[in-house]
């Protein structure tokens, strides 16, 4: 097994007690990264940890390629970014002693990154280098003269506004997910807790269009009655507060989940109990990672259910992540003919153009029109 070795210039994303005061001028990479991360201090804990991880592990990779120096980031060029992208496709473990010298206790890269993860990595690095052009190395010189991620970042691109979202389950695939949940064992009290939690998670993500981080942060008190029905108050992506509709079907699922826990059917005002509870531990909530693992297991079971009749559907289910539940809920609602403005508000999309990407009826209508045209053709002579 090939490992990567380098010299020692410790990267230590340390606790606050170990942080040195940042002067008006930035002269080393660690201080530059800290200054960049400080701009995200008001964001959610998930966002700040994600950004911190991407910045520091890029620096660990960079230091493994360069002679030791405290200021390597200003020397990064576009070729380095392209090399990093290749590395992310097939990451190799770093030398253990080198990692310890960098303040890491585990390998920062354990497997190849998915396409979405690579895009996220590039986005973070793009913002980091953009910010470092605003930091001053001297009175006149920026810490980084240019942004080396710019071309690679633009090359990856974002989904075009009118491009359809493919990461949504079909009606058959969504049915298989529900069947997988219903096939979970229910013989013991612990089995029942696992079943009801899995059912609640899939229904919550699907019907409220939630991201797993948002679902993990919810409390029972996040569900509030209004003169028109129940709402959900939450803190979404980027720390934005939102107030969305909790449909009657979703509230029915909440009643089922709460009753299974021995709670009253509906939550009390300002109830602080987590909306999704861990199976072990009284009043203990669940983490976004736990939601991810639970969903992946359900998708795996669903894939096994459809494999014999539809291998492609099985492959898609094996690739699915919790975020697909959000996409699926939005897509199915659009296909049901709900006004896009309401879907946009519920999904908290930035514009109707984003919401329009979830409307798969257009493509089906397009296909039906072409098929109808070919049906009118005269048959070829046999």
From TrEMBL:
Domain named Core-binding (CB): residues: 27-133
GO MF annotation terms: DNA binding
UniProt protein name: Site-specific recombinase XerD
Listed PANTHER family: PHAGE INTEGRASE-RELATED, TYROSINE RECOMBINASE XERC
Domain Tyr recombinase: 164-371
One GO term of the biological process aspect: cell division
Keywords: Cell cycle, Cell division, Chromosome partition, Cytoplasm, DNA integration, DNA recombination, DNA-binding
Record has DNA-binding as a keyword: yes
InterPro entries: CB (IPR044068), DNA_brk_join_enz (IPR011010), Integrase-like_cat_sf (IPR013762), Integrase_catalytic (IPR002104), Integrase_recombinase_N (IPR010998), Tyrosine_recombinase_XerCD (IPR050090)
Any single GO CC term annotated in Swiss-Prot or TrEMBL for this entry: cytoplasm
Subcellular location: Cytoplasm
PROSITE patterns, per database record: CB, TYR_RECOMBINASE
Origin superkingdom: Bacteria
Record bears the keyword Cytoplasm: yes
Pfam families: Phage_integrase
């Amino acid at each position: 097994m090939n490992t990567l070795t380098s010299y020692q210039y410790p990267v230590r994303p340390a606790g606050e007690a170990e942080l040195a005061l940042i002067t008006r001028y930035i002269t080393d990479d660690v201080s530059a990264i800290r200054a960049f991360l400080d701009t995200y201090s008001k964001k959610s804990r998930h966002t700040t940890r994600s950004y911190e991880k991407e910045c520091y592990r890029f620096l660990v990779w960079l230091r493994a390629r360069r002679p030791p120096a405290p200021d390597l980031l200003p020397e990064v060029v576009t070729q380095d970014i392209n090399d990093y992208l290749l590395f992310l496709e097939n990451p190799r473990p770093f030398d253990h002693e080198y990692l310890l010298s960098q303040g890491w206790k585990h390998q920062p890269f354990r497997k190849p990154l998915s396409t979405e993860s690579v895009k996220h990595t590039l986005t973070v690095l793009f913002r980091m280098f953009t910010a470092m052009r605003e930091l001053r190395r001297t009175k006149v010189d920026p810490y980084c003269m240019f942004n080396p991620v710019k071309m690679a970042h633009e090359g990856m691109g974002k989904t075009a506004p009118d491009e359809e979202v493919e990461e949504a389950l079909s009606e058959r695939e969504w049915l298989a997910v529900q069947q997988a949940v219903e096939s979970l064992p229910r013989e013991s009290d612990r089995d029942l807790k696992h079943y009801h939690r899995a059912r609640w998670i899939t229904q919550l993500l699907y019907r409220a269009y939630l991201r797993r981080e948002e679902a993990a942060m919810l409390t029972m008190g996040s569900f509030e009655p209004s003169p028109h029905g129940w709402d959900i108050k939450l803190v979404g992506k980027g720390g934005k507060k939102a107030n969305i509709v909790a449909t009657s079907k979703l509230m029915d699922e909440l009643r089922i989940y709460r009753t299974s826990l021995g709670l009253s059917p509906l939550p009390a005002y300002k109830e602080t109990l987590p909306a999704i509870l861990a199976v072990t531990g009284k009043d203990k909530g669940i983490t976004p990672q736990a939601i991810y693992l639970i969903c992946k297991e359900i998708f795996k079971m669903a894939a096994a259910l459809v494999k014999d009749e539809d291998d492609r559907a099985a492959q898609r289910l094996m690739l699915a992540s919790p975020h697909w539940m959000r996409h699926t809920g939005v897509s199915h609602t659009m296909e049901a003919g709900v006004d896009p403005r309401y879907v946009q508000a519920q999904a908290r999309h930035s514009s109707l153009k984003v919401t329009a990407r979830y409307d798969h009826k257009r493509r089906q209508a397009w296909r039906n029109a072409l098929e109808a045209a070919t049906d009118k053709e005269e048959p070829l002579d046999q």
